[in-house]
Amino acid sequence: MTNSSTQRWPERGGGDALPPAGTATRCHTPWTDRPDIAQNRGVPASARSTLADVAAAAGVSVTTASRALRGQGEMAAATRARVAAAATALRYTHDGERRGRPRGGTARLIDLVLSHFHNPYTEEVTAGARTAAAHLRYDLVLTTERDDPDDDWPVRIRSRGSAGVVLGLILPTATQTAVMREAGIPVVLLEPPSGSSRGLPSVRSTDRAGGSAAAEHLIARGAGRFVVIGGSPPYRWGRARVEGFFETLDAALPRAARVHESANWGATEGREACQRALVGISGDGPVGVFACSDEMAAGAYRAVADAGLRVGVDVLIVGFDDLRGARWLQPSLTTVRQPIREMAAAAVRMLATGAPSAEAIVELPTELIARGSTRGAGD
Which parts pass through the membrane (predicted)? Predict the structure, then answer.
């Protein structure tokens, strides 16, 4: 940990000596007037290769130097240029920051990075990754995404020399990707939220096929009117599920009444979206509801009850994920099972067996699990 206090240091040999490595300072002699810095002569490697030294030479804080070198944050062009010039003069690389720490890929650690850990989906991800890591004799480190770019996951992971990183439902920035590549730490994306994977390998499920299976099932169970509750924001997997559903519905029942609503992936929002749809849909007969997550499907149950209707009779509901709560609903929820644990395990195995190819995309199949919410009026 660097000392954030500003210090002066004694003169030696007619000029200032560099401060101790890791000490944040203000440089009282401009770096351009320092031949020992500008020419890299007479300066020990341990003293000239840290971010703190770059900051001192440029006359800025360590945080400012870090942001300037990463191209982050707003700052004067002259400041950014001064930091870049100091880094070049000092021959600064991230190797200096890692001195005394494991090199990238050398520790038997795999980091699982998630934005949060306390929901049923991420619990399944964690369980799958932990089991696979233990089987392969790796330790799994749970790492949380943070808002502060100077203390986000690449900084922490690089410092411990992890063998690899699984990013769950997160698309890294170009800068974060570059930091990992420079550190020699491979990254695998688990269900990336965007169609662009930034040249990184990924593990995902057959979301489009899952949406198609939901439509086929609702049609087979006698639904003649349809409600689709998509997710907002419209992540890649949500769009694929909706597209698969409507593609199959258009082929089988092109004139069927339909309403497409969006919700913020939660039960409360799913309830509100389903309420709007049930009011707005025309025609008679059973309504088939496809919600792009089990949580939104649970909200749809409440909307059906609010309307005085019956789940599994008047309204048939299909969710997506097959989280454990799907079995606890009454009636139990028909859903498209996503192999969440298996996907997380596959991502860990990709890292443990060596740096995976950037073009590698592993898709695991979804499966429709029929339960009481689509039993139909005649059953």
Answer: none
